[in-house]
Amino acid sequence: MPVxxxxxxLINQIAAGEVVERPASVVKELVENAxxxxxxxxxxxxxxxGRTLISVIDNGKGMSKVDLGNxxxxxxxxxxxxxxxxxxxxxxxxxxxxxxxxxVSDMSIDTFYKDEPNGWQLDATTGExxxxxxxxxxxIRVANLFAKTPARLKFLNSDKSEMLAILDVVKRxxxxxxxxxxxxxxxxxxxxxQDLMERIISVMGEDVRGQMLAVDAKxxxxxxxxxxxxxxxxxxxxxxxxxxxxVNGRSVKDKVLVSALRAAYMDVMHAREFPxxxxxxxxxxxxxxxxxxxxxxxxxxLEPTHVRAxxxxxxxxxxxxxxxxxxxxTQTNNSQNSEFSLGLTQTVFRAPQNDSFVRSFVAEPTxxxxxxxxxxxxxxxFESDAFDLPLGRVIGQLNNKYILAENKDGFVIIDQxxxxxxxxxxxxRTHTIKTQPLLAPIVIKMKSEDAESVLxxxxxxxxxxxxIDSFGxxxxxxxxxxxxxxxxxxxxxxxxxxxxxxxxHSSRLQEKLHLKLANYACHHSVRSGRKLNMAEMDALLRDIxxxxxxxxxxxxxxxxxxxxxxELDAMFERI
Length: 575
What we know:
Strand order of the largest sheet: 5-4-3-6-2-1-7-8
Largest sheet: 8 strands, mixed
Number of helices: 19
Number of domains: 3
CATH class of the largest domain: Alpha Beta
Distance between the termini: 86 Å
Helix content: 25-40%
CATH superfamily of the largest domain: MutL, C-terminal domain, dimerisation subdomain
Structural class: alpha+beta
Mean pLDDT: 81
């Protein structure tokens, strides 16, 4: 069969298959164009989930007659001032959206440009341009989507499903630009210049109010900035539906960012649960390539490992301060000087000597099941200034399960097991892993490409106590591993290779290590049902105040709850 040049209409329909996947794709492209035109108010109307009609009206700067005619030509764009594809500062830039949409629908454009005497209307099917009474900005109407390619219609979901996809697109664009007003079908409204936190609440729901932690961090070189909000670990979803990630103002679903978010929450949230976030990463355009996919939802970072590490570090620092964020400023020095502090730097717990995992992990085990009981005068607990500390002054124990305390803000209830579980875990986590050099290396046979993938993160694996190297072209050898720690190494390395191949990195071994530490901490901490004396309870409170991520246990359950005086007064109708 001879090689032939395809006609323009077919080329546009092929491009539409990449750009216009469903009605939501059309909405995304048209709204991004409106944003690039400087609009600060955008009205979207959709009929029948977008099959029958999609209308987008903006108050942007509009187009001249010449620009209007060029707008439906392939690869014609106003978004690239030069030919540098690594210097892209607009949402849309490919020059494929309008001609692609026009090739599979009946599209018309009304626009007005300030330097021209009247508005113009374009019929994208015929290319005819005629004067219009349109007086401001641009309106694009897309009718009968996929009518020209009816085979595509059968792949659409129900009108309701397509409408939900459109709503998701609008929410993401609204989160990207809280300075812009959005109205969808006169039902979903996001006001112009809305406070970011209020925009987040309007998008995610009222339950996030007061449960989001502010993030604002810069890299050492100050070339990267991460800001926005992440949820307190006790607020989570069953899916990633409320994870909003942005790179230089562009909404993305990027594997580097998603994995960094997961890694940051690894030891405060169950793996099958998802934190909420609205995170904005800013970095020089030369360090990120947005010209990856037609949908523009993926990006390529010049230094993905550096970006990932920066995000994980920034988020973990925020999560580490959740105790202070929730109940005021910690007076650490006072708690450290407390006569009855039974901190883990002393001897609260001593590990069973036959526990091989902990013996392999720390040189001098420091935990046991039995609380050390001080013989000093318990009344000293009440003579301290613990009332002014975040978790306050112990007043008793409920059902041998919860510690009751009071502070200057109100009434505090602490889950004794969850509190000590977090303390135990953090103590283990800060110890250096004891490693065991192997007289004969463990050799794992793999496909050569999988072996190469594992070697990419060789240095990261060393931080987990695993020293590896290549063993020929199709094998990996383990020369050193955590002492007394045996895994199904063949399965583990294959999982690591799969992750690196798909995402460029792997957190598989760190997750296995976290699971071991978390399980040990759970089984070797103060149990529910254990009666504690006042000094022991006070010691536990002082220790959790000094512990990173002290507001939740390793499984993401809350360690404490504070009931304010105002809430108590309301309960008893004293307001």
